[in-house]
Amino acid sequence: MSTDDYAHLHGTHQADLFAGAAYVPELDRERLGKQVRRVYDCMIGGAWRTLGEISRITGDPEGSVGSQLRNLRMERFGRHTVDRRRRGDPAAGLFEYRLGAQAVEAFKAPRSSRSEAPTADASALELGRKFEKDLELAIALVEDLALRSADLRLLGQAHLFGARRELESLLSALQPSPKC
Fold it and tell me: Using one digit for the tens of pLDDT, what is the confidence trace for 27-48?
């Protein structure tokens, strides 16, 4: 989805989305628009994720992920609630985040409860916009499932790698040492 599509879905114009002293629209607009969309797509499923996990899924740096989560709280990005809680040892300072329940529920809700059925006099343009929004949400869900699948595969590979290292260590400990 392009930045223009994201802006269209959220009722903003592409030029209105980003600002700041270091922001150069010609250099940053497209990159930041794609980045916020990747973070949004990653989080819409409702899973709790750390900045590191979101970074691995989206391929964006943790600092950028944190910035985009803050952007999602802004009105021009939909004024989403981004929940935050500590993970693991509280003294470690590790936090995890999820998109607020309202956005997640709206995303997961059946079509009939998300929007009213179109009336007989609804314009073709309005119907097209509703269809486009539903299609974008469906695409985001499929992308989220694909990312979760990839995340699980990486986690499995990491566990297998760790188990292999332990097994190799045990095998080397069991081998007789050469006698002089």
Answer: 888 899 999 999 998 898 888 9
State the CATH class of domain 3-174: mainly alpha
Q: How far apart are CA 9 and CA 140, in angstroms?
A: 13
Query: What are the distances in angstroms from CA 22 to CA 19, 25, 26?
Result: 8, 10, 12
Q: What is the pLDDT of residue 84?
A: 95
Q: In one letter, which amino acid is 58? A: T
Bridge partners, 83 (sequence order): 98
What is the model's pTM? 0.53
Q: Where are the domains positioned within the chain?
A: 3-174
* 3-state DSSP of 42-79: HHCCCCCEEHHHHHHHHCCCHHHHHHHHHHHHCHHHCC
Tokens (6 digits) for 64: 């950028």
Element (H, E) at 93: none
DSSP bridge pairs for 84? 97
Instruction: Provide the percentage of residues in the chain whose pLDDT is more than 70.
Output: 73
